[in-house]
Amino acid sequence: MKKAVAHLKSSDPVLGALIDKIGPSRIHYRPATFDALVHSIVNQQLSGKAAATIYGRLVDALAPKEVEPRGILRLGEEGLRTLGISKQKSSYLLDLAEQTRKKKVDFETLPKLADAVILEQLTAIKGIGEWTVHMFLMFALRRPDVLPVGDLGIQNAIQKAYGLESRPKPNQVAEIGAKWRPHASYAAWYLWRSLE
User: Fold this and answer.
1) Alpha carbon distance 27, 40 (integer Å)
2) What DSSP line would sit under 88-124, residue for residue?
3) What's the predicted TM-score (pTM) here?
4) Does domain 34-139 have CATH number 3.40.50.1000?
């Protein structure tokens, strides 16, 4: 982490100022499991508080309080919907559970794969897009060089920090973030924190 922060501060004075203001990183990681992807799906397009409430209900509904494919499949769409999970997200969770059960997604081998391979494999599953995979890479697999260029929080933070007239498009985020490589995940974390 010290190496990453030193690189970010020396390569980008704007980000360096944010790092100085925010202080040491307190990134919270999740195990690289089925549960981590379920958590990411539940979080899609929800505020942190709403997502935490719904995810908590899901954990409580599953016995033995572990989020596993068989538990999701046992709940089915109707059971997931009663927890406050939308019909669309319920279908995503059920597809992920089925693909995992069939070993089309193997959480034991995922950590050994390259980011691009993981992105291709997971986005083949219904409801898992690039953003969800980026969150999984960053916060479950702890990959250090992921830049979620389509994330609105990242775009808003860049607009604010760099004094841009409009929110940058993904290609502009990639251009600005090129200097953060190979520590883009840490840059993203600091950008999100800058909005708090």
Assistant:
1) 16
2) HHHHHHHHHHHHHHTTSS-TTTGGGS-HHHHHHHHHT
3) 0.86
4) no
